[in-house]
Amino acid sequence: MKPLRIFIALVLFAGASLTARAMYLHAKADLASVLIHRAWGKTVVDGRPHPPWPWADTYPVARLRIPRLGYDEVVLEGATPRTLAFGPARLFSGAGLGEPGNVELAGHRTSWFRPLENLDARDEIQVQWFDARKRELRERTYTVDDIRIVTPEEVTSLVPASDDSLTLITCYPFGHHPRSPQRFVVIASPAGPSRLAEPSRVAKGAQL
């Protein structure tokens, strides 16, 4: 009986360890989200970049909303693997927020960009950013023109090179599949020029 008791004890210990780790990671993600939204709220107020924690090598640069899906996330600067663990992020290969050209945003298929699987053509996507030159918070609405599932090699030829546009990129298929050999690409065009962001649309980031 002793070997059986040892085995059961080991199984219980392993289960408890995995549960504790899952709870820790979940709590860490929740705390990171709060700190990121607070940092964005500070940027909304003073226009300066604010790292969400002292040792962060990124900072919030925009707020991304998809009204029909109830999607609302803060975008971080630089789509590095470390940054993407905490939220959607801007790719350096694309245009800067508020600059002419194609703004490219990436996110994980298992979390930040998982809701994109419910996106439809003609859906509206709203992007907020702080215009440092004008010292004001701006917002631009885009309309989804095209949604494609392609190979990684095809992404470069699909993404607009110079036209004002917004491109969202994530791996495919969505969810916790062991492999993600394809890319899910959303291309959207401006529905009009940028405008001053309405105060009510800033509330989430500024109040946290």
Automatic annotation (TrEMBL):
Domain of life, source organism: Bacteria
Enzyme class (EC, first level): hydrolase
Protein name, per record: Class GN sortase
MF annotations from Gene Ontology: hydrolase activity
Signal sequence extent: 1-22
Species this protein is from: Candidatus Acidiferrum panamense
Coiled-coil intervals: none
E.C. no: 3.4.22.-
InterPro entries: Sortase, Sortase_D_1, Sortase_dom-sf, Sortase_proteobact_type
Keyword line: Hydrolase, Signal
A Pfam family hit: Sortase
